[in-house]
Amino acid sequence: MLAGTITVQGGKLTSTGAVLTSLKEQTQLLPSCGSVFVPKASGVCSLATAGDWGGLVLDASKANTLTESVVDTQRPGSRWAPHRDPPGTEPDLGNSRISNSAADGVSTRSPVSITGGAFTRNGAHGIKVDLTDVASSAFQPLWISGSAISGSGQDGILAIGLAGQTVTIDQTSVDLAGAFGINLRDPAKTRPLPRHLPSQAGTLR
User: CA geometry: angle at 121 spanning 119 and 124, to 5°?
Assistant: First the structure.
């Protein structure tokens, strides 16, 4: 992908073992250098950089899943719109890697379940969750477990609008954050169980 986004509206994205990255990322199966999409400059191919493409824009009313997948060099990160549907349709990320985003690695206004995986070298937040407009429900918790978050330009994890929400953060490492390692705002029912928080900012809030 180059410049544009992958947008899914009215349907769900199911990704298992996929690699979503810039067309500038040369592979043996897809040598795009020198093509109409990635022309050479002075005989040299441009290197893949953060912000090459627009990331994923997904419909949060559907059960989107990313499993064992890689999302790299996106511009604003992967985004989910507000979630207003019954439990069971919240986004699910399992053992996936999102890195080198020019903004947030993941930005969602819906409850999300994230298990394992890594969120590295993202320009803003590794994971940003805004539940301000989401009705609280014990069946739709914010769940982050076993993930590694490193090199975020701002907070490793930022979650806001948490009044009445249930939040679980378990066995998650946050390293080299530009601001707070984990920043939870207005929590009512919070179960933070971090085992490793070596954030450079040195603060858990």
Answer: 90
Give pLDDT tens digits along the chain (205 positions).
445 778 888 888 898 998 887 777 766 666 666 565 666 666 677 777 777 777 788 887 788 888 988 888 655 555 554 444 444 556 788 999 999 888 899 988 888 899 999 999 999 999 999 988 888 777 778 899 999 999 999 999 999 998 888 889 999 999 999 999 999 987 655 555 444 444 444 333 3
Query: Torsion angle, CA of 88/158/66/122, rounded to 10 degrees?
Result: 170
Cβ contacts of residue 24 below 8 Å, gap of 6+? 2, 32, 33, 38, 45, 46, 47, 48, 49, 52, 73
In a domain, 59, yes or no: yes
99 token code pair = 């890195």
Distance (Å, whole) CA 11 – CA 28:
32
The answer to whether residue 141 sits within a structural domain is yes
Q: Which domain holds residue 111?
A: 6-22+51-193
Domain-embedded: residue 143: yes
Inside any domain, residue 127: yes
What is the number of structural domains in the chain? 1
| Pairwise CA distance, residues 64 & 79, whole Å | 11
Backbone φ and ψ for 67, nearest 5 degrees, come out as -130, 130
Residue 170 and residue 196: Cα distance in Å, rounded? 9
